[in-house]
Design brief:
By secondary structure, the protein is mostly helical. It has helices at residues 28-42, 45-54, 57-67, 74-84, 88-100, 102-108. It starts with 27 loop residues before the first helix and ends with a helix.
Length: 109
């Protein structure tokens, strides 16, 4: 690869998850948090496989724990909890807290 040839920042098959970003300007190095959260929130099979190739289960678990599950739909949060081994009681607590939030209630009615 020459210095003029540039690899895509993220694979073509998952760029659609970042429709509001310039795909060429979105890189794993500079946008790791944004990419991780979006793929946890909405990623399909290919996105999940790619994310798990980038981060270990421990790193994904730590990311979710740091955020206390915030920003991840309860159904998706339960999926990831099973996949990376988060304690069910902890996930239940995060979901209960989120459901008490007036914004959550407003958007779910």
């Amino acid at each position: 690869m020459t210095s003029e040839t540039k690899e895509p920042a993220i694979p073509q098959e998952i760029q659609g998850y970042f429709w509001e970003y310039d795909a060429d300007g979105l890189s794993w190095e500079s946008s790791r948090h944004t990419i991780t959260l979006r793929l946890l929130q909405a990623g399909g099979l290919q996105a999940t496989l790619w994310l798990r190739a980038q981060l270990s289960d421990e790193e994904i678990r730590a990311f979710i724990v740091r955020r206390r599950g915030r920003g991840i739909d309860p159904r998706r949060l339960r999926f990831w909890a099973v996949l990376v081994g988060l304690p069910t009681g902890q996930v239940d607590e995060w979901i209960a807290t989120a459901r008490e939030n007036p914004w959550y209630q407003r958007t779910r009615s």
